[in-house]
Every structure is written in C-alpha cells, then in structure tokens.
C-alpha cells in the first residue's frame, strides 16, 4: 500500500462523510474514533483525521487532537507502515499512539523504521469489553441508583476527580475547568446506600453510532467488595440499552483482575486488548 493512499483532513465533517459508514459498521472496534470525532464536532476542537482507501472503499482511519498522540482504528501491518511513512514524510512529530494491541505494535515498529524514533510501551494495558446478555448481581446490595443532573455538578466533579486520581490521570477538575474536560459529556449515576450515602459512581458517553461506552467507574478503596460497582454498572448498562444502544462497551485495566472478573460476571465479553506507546522526543 502506498503512503499516498492516506487522505488527510482537518475537517471532521469531511472525515465523517468519508469514513462514518465504515466506523459505524464495527462500532466496538472504532469506539475511540467515533467518540473523539463527535467531541471534535460538538466542541470545535482542532484535530487531524486520516482515511485509508480509494474512492468509497475505506480500510482504516486515524485521529489526532492538537498536541496529542494518534488514535488508530484496527490496521494491518501494511496500513500501519504506509501511515507511518506518510506522516514521517510530512515531518509530523508523533508523541504517542493508542490502538488495539496488534495495531499499536505494528505502528510503533513502523514509526521506528520511518522516523528513527524509539517507542516505549505504556504500563497501562486495557481490555475492551462488549456487553452480551446483561446479568445483574444477585442479590444486589442494599440501596438505589440515582442519576446525577446539572444541579449535582459539585458531586460529579468530586467523583470524577477521585476516579482520575485513582487511574493516574494528570487532570485538575473544578467548576471552571469542567466544561473543557473529557468528563463533561457523560451522564453519571451514583449508587447510594439506604441512608443516601453515595458509595460508587459510573458514567456513560452519549449514544454515538448506535453504541454507548460506559466510562468512569469508581468505588473508594474502603468500600470495595460490597457489590456497589456491580450494582451501579448494571444500572448504567440497563439505561444504555433502554436508550437504544445496540452495543454497550467499556474498558478495564488488565492489571486489575477484580474489575475484569466483575464485568465478565455482568455479561461483558472480550472484544480486544488495547495498548499504547510513547515515542521518545515525539
């Protein structure tokens, strides 16, 4: 495949006109492409997009937000090589790449060949799950789910801040920075004990391409092991299906066997493993 087979654009509408059908044909595998294209469209963010293929035939895509790394759809080694060749020829500095594991490995190797820049694998490795048949926990813990609204911004900021710190995200959240964060476009649900004490949170992205991603799941360490996370993820998953989602997906940290086992008990099945690489001096 020639490097010229990659069409590049900074126009998200152009990108979606060319690749939207391809992305929606496999929404689970393309969850990050669909999610970030929608955020760029809604928020007016600066981004670069790419489409591999000729005419109406699309084989792969990428996106890159300003000053951030590449997000890739599943690519063959040949497609990854042609993309690396194209970006290197244009003088692009690529700080990192994130994709399904095979694609990430293929691009990291291709980028080294074409740019001479070494890749360092990230410690965080994820598994992408897709919901099969939702299987609620039995018995559920005492309490109830409560959907948070605009009047609950303080609660949302508090819980997302705790989640971000728990997974090592370097972000500062408060009322002033909230709207520009990746957390702002989600719908959040708390699990509360019978006396109204919040003990666990789960968030969900908007319906995009017939799919909803469950994103942000957190229970404070001293409250874990009581079924709260299973209960709130069940409620969020149920709400996603009720909203018309044909697919419900989520990521889990592979180093956390407890959360992976929980999601599988709830009916989530492995879709693919996910990996990231940082490039020295990118």
UniProtKB/TrEMBL annotation:
<dbReference type="GO" id="GO:0016747">
    <property type="term" value="F:acyltransferase activity, transferring groups other than amino-acyl groups"/>
</dbReference>
<dbReference type="Pfam" id="PF08445">
    <property type="entry name" value="FR47"/>
</dbReference>
<dbReference type="InterPro" id="IPR013653">
    <property type="entry name" value="GCN5-like_dom"/>
</dbReference>
<dbReference type="InterPro" id="IPR016181">
    <property type="entry name" value="Acyl_CoA_acyltransferase"/>
</dbReference>
<protein>
    <submittedName>
        <fullName>Acetyltransferase</fullName>
    </submittedName>
</protein>
<feature type="domain" description="N-acetyltransferase">
    <location>
        <begin position="143"/>
        <end position="282"/>
    </location>
</feature>
<dbReference type="InterPro" id="IPR000182">
    <property type="entry name" value="GNAT_dom"/>
</dbReference>
